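Retry 2 of 3 after timeout on previous attempt. Resubmitting structure tokens to design endpoint.
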């Protein structure tokens, strides 16, 4: 049976208790801090009022950041795959020349 850890969080001034695995505890705390930071960023710009709208705008900002990073990682993977393919071709050519 897997162990469960309880994490106390505060988001937008509200307290939450979340159950997670011990390995996830630090990431959950980091995630809550990120959510609070994004919420404070949205509040700071003052364009959104109401906790629901602020929360949705923060979630959209986090999702956008995630998708941008995902695209960057995909582009790096594609670049690395291309470079690996070119290196393999050069190795194969060199091996053929040795024969």
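Retry 2 succeeded. Sequence:
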């Amino acid at each position: 049976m897997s162990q469960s850890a309880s994490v106390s969080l505060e988001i937008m001034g509200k307290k939450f208790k979340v159950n997670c695995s011990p390995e996830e505890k630090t990431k959950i705390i980091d995630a809550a801090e990120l959510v609070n930071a994004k919420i404070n960023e949205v509040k700071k710009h003052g364009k959104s009022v109401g906790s629901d709208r602020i929360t949705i705008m923060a979630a959209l900002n986090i999702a956008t950041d995630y998708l941008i990073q995902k695209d960057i990682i995909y582009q790096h993977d594609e670049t690395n795959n291309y470079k690996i393919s070119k290196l393999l071709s050069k190795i194969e050519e060199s091996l053929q020349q040795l024969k």
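Attempt log closed. The radius of gyration is 23 Å.
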